[in-house]
Specification:
With 442 residues, the chain is α+β, with helices and mostly antiparallel strands. It has 8 helices and 21 strands.
């Protein structure tokens, strides 16, 4: 039995079973106000052996009913979805993922997202956002806002109807996280990349450096990749301008000259390698923001599927390699796991002395199952492993840690707010002790 990885707020609803907002579904308990479930439905099953795909055991399904009757999946697969996450070698798995089918009560509407936590409590932040954000967007969609009506600038009408609600939900989500003293988010945070798909409409919301990539076909009917998001790194001109205008610093270290990080004005911490994120409130006054970049894509018959993944995948595999690996899988349900397996193999080959990063993948297929889209996985593997960074060029440190030089002193558990002094206006810690260490968090 797998313990449901929901936030502590969800379990609090067990004490409120008489509340009209709480619905008991078999062994599950759902709180419609908080958008969380206190236990989960679990299934397990096996697939046939296949030489190229090896003997793969499906992850147990974790599903429950969400806001407006949506079917929520935290793990497993369905007709159009494959999802999988695997812990790396850096400690606790700080990645999280979710898929909502019939999102916001709309038939054939999907909301998919992956989250990549970082910092000492990154795993808690990632799961907290995963559990609350989709329900918040769904509930906000049921309300009317003058700002959200009509067309916004040159945006597509479908995008206009959702953009304001998504951005508002992200900002409210960050405010709630800041006010929750049970989760240390001063030097911890998470990325988020999500898609909302209904028919031919696809809305992409990006916060940080996780990535969404589309598999489509060119004029010769060959599969190609199309990156739907921009990795929001601190050295992007518009991001750097905002950060510097808020007195934050954007610098790369001598040992990793290509990795730019955000630093506090007068402290060599925390060294965050992205320009937008939930949490990380030590940097929110210095240019880090929680406003997502929201874009629109109109799908066509050429489009096959979209892959959402954390940087544990993209750090070692190209967009084209990812598309070809997923397209080569015979059983859709295995797509996400086999992609992670391939990424882990490349990590070991490309960075033999480095610690493998956590990986989380969600694949959303647009069409009904069909024959193999491309070559077998073994042929793709040869391409994926065609790297030259070995021998004298092998690295002992991957240089891919998200946060450097940041540690928050632990406070007595029995002290008020965990021993943290909160500002009465902002609910932020009044003062945190930040120590410089070699590398803390992922």
């Amino acid at each position: 039995m797998i313990s449901p990885p929901f936030s502590s707020q969800a379990f609090a609803s067990l004490e409120n079973l008489d509340s009209p907002s709480v619905i008991q579904i078999g062994t599950r308990i759902w709180d419609s106000n908080m958008g969380q479930c206190c236990s989960c439905h679990i299934q397990s099953y096996h697939v046939e052996n296949r030489e190229e795909e090896r003997e793969v055991k499906h992850e147990e399904d974790i599903t429950f009913r969400g806001h407006a009757g949506a079917h929520v999946r935290l793990q497993g697969s369905s007709k159009f979805v494959s999802m999988y996450t695997q812990q790396g070698k850096k400690g606790t798995n700080q990645d999280a993922m979710t898929v909502w089918e019939n999102f916001s009560g709309a038939k054939d509407t999907f909301f998919c997202a992956v989250f990549d936590g970082h910092g000492p409590s990154g795993h808690k932040v990632a799961r907290y956002i995963r559990d609350v954000l989709p329900a918040k967007i769904s509930m906000l969609n049921n309300k009317s806002y003058a700002n959200a009506e009509g067309k916004i600038g040159n945006d597509h009408p479908f995008l206009s109807s959702w953009k304001y609600k998504i951005i508002k939900s992200f900002e409210e989500m960050d405010d709630e996280l800041e006010g929750d003293a049970s989760i240390e988010s001063y030097c911890s945070g998470t990325t988020s990349v999500s898609i909302l798909r209904k028919g031919e409409h696809l809305i992409i919301s990006n916060l940080g450096d996780s990535r969404a990539v589309l598999c489509t076909r060119d004029d010769k009917d060959q599969l190609i990749s199309e990156q739907l998001t921009v990795d929001l790194k601190p050295n992007l001109p518009r991001e750097m301008e905002r950060i510097k205008s808020c007195q934050g610093r954007v610098l790369a270290m001598d040992k990793e000259p290509n990795v730019y990080r955000i630093w506090m004005p007068d402290e060599d911490c925390p060294g965050l390698a992205m320009a937008r994120a939930f949490g990380d409130f030590c940097l929110k006054d210095f240019g880090l923001i929680s406003t997502p970049e929201v874009t629109y894509k109109k799908l066509t018959q050429r489009d096959e599927f979209v892959v959402l993944a954390t940087d544990g995948i993209w750090d070692v595999l190209s967009n084209n390699e990812v598309v070809r690996i997923v397209a080569s899988v015979k059983k859709r349900s295995l797509a996400a796991k086999l992609l992670v397996d391939q990424a882990v193999r490349v990590w070991r080959y490309k960075y033999p002395c480095a610690k493998i990063d956590d990986c989380a993948v969600v694949c959303l297929f647009f069409k009904h199952p069909r024959p193999l889209l491309t070559k077998s996985i073994s042929e793709v593997t040869e391409i994926s492993l065609n790297h030259t960074e070995l021998g004298a060029n092998a690295r002992t440190d991957d240089g891919l840690d998200t946060v450097l030089n940041c540690k928050v002193e632990e406070s007595p558990e029995n002290a008020p707010n965990g021993g943290v002094q909160l500002d009465s206006a902002t609910h932020r810690p009044r003062k945190r002790t930040v120590k410089k260490v070699d590398q803390v968090g992922d």
